[in-house]
Amino acid sequence: MKWSEISIHTTQEAVEPISNIVHEAGASGVVIEDPFDLFKERESVYGEIYQLNPDDYPDEGVIVKAYLPVNSFLGETVEEIKESINTLVKYDIDLGKNKVSISEVNEEEWATAWKKYYHPVKISDKFTIVPTWETYEPVHSDELIIELDPGMAFGTGTHPTTVLCIQALERSVKENDAVVDVGTGSGVLSIAAAMLGAKSVSALDLDPVAVNSARINTKLNKVHDRVQVSENNLLNEINGPADVVVANILAEIILKFSDDAYRILKEDGLFITSGIIMNKKNEVKEGLLNAGFVILETMVMEDWVAFIAKKA
Predict the structure, then answer these.
(1) Are residues 110 and 202 in the same domain?
(2) Are the beta carbons of 207 and 23 closer than 8 angstroms?
(3) In terms of domains, do 84 and 227 share one?
(4) Which segments in the chain show pLDDT lower than 70?
(5) CB 3.0–4.6 Å: which of 24, 131, 155, 205 could bond 210 by disulfide?
(6) DSSP-based three-state secondary structure for 62
(7) For residue 44, what pLDDT is reported?
């Protein structure tokens, strides 16, 4: 089978929304080439420890590569992707060069080439993300392993926004909690919540492809008995009550449903939000305060921010 590689030269700020756009357009897998990865200092406990080739990265900006099957609709799909990316400027998202290029690859080449970007990564005190094809032996007896396959899972689970969310869940989820995961994507946050002892997790996503992916991953990690995955638009018609609501999603979207998060949370319930680029930090903080939340903790990793907020 022939695949078309669509390459978008953009900025780090635009990586998350563009990745979402290409997934919704039917992309099977995304690769992010960020030159910052070549030079960033990693803590001794967390982070990828493997060789990165500078030739795989742009001199400036970030390249997002996605893979679409070559068919009669490819031209229309690419134009729709371009149009959706261009609309991001309405949200004050810097698109950088915003250069889009297309090339053709064989499925056999693509199926193995992208795996060089993905290795076991310890992302928090307890959690390690492991690709399904790699053998990994836990270092500590209490280490929790989440298995993911990026070919079906909307990313590797190691982006700073995801890492921040999982670290926040570690501090927040208690035994027998009820958790709601808004915009679940691969289901990685729902899986983490269940492994931390949540008795029930509602994993919600508007994209049916994401819903299917999350269901596969919850079964892969043997938590499908506690994680209910369903197609839903944010928290519409969700009543709770919930102990924790978590969302790794665009700042603008967080602001749209903060009132609903407040509504479904129990008294003293926690709202964990991530996916917030640094220049949106104050805007989201103000929105959470206006909804009635108290900010308990502000977490920062690289240029990304997460909040742990409590229903006052």
Answers:
(1) no
(2) yes
(3) no
(4) 1, 28-29, 35-59, 106-117, 149-157
(5) 205
(6) strand
(7) 37
Residues 231 and 257: beta-carbon distance below 8 Å: no
- Given 117, 137, 164, which residue is the final one in a domain? 117
Distance CA 308, CA 82 (A): 34
Same domain, 63 and 202: no
pTM of the model: 0.68
Hey, how many other C-beta atoms are within 10 angstroms of the C-beta on 18? 25
pLDDT the model gives residue 137: 82
| Residue 165 and residue 47 in one domain | no
In a shared domain, residues 186 and 113: no
- Three-class secondary structure of residue 296 per DSSP: strand
Look-up of token digits 């990265």: 57
Pair (125, 261) in one structural domain: yes
Domain around 205: 121-311
pLDDT tens for residues 59-101? 678 899 888 888 878 888 899 999 999 999 998 999 999 999 9
Name every residue whose Cβ is closer than 8 Å to that of residue 239 and which is 6 or more positions away in sequence.
264
| C-alpha span between 69 and 105 (Å, rounded) | 10
CATH of the domain at 71: 3.30.70.120
Q: Coil, helix or strand for 15? A: helix
**Token reading at 54:** 């500078």
Do 129 and 76 lie in one domain? The reply is no
Helix ranges (H only) for 14-156 are 15-24, 36-39, 74-86, 107-113, 150-153
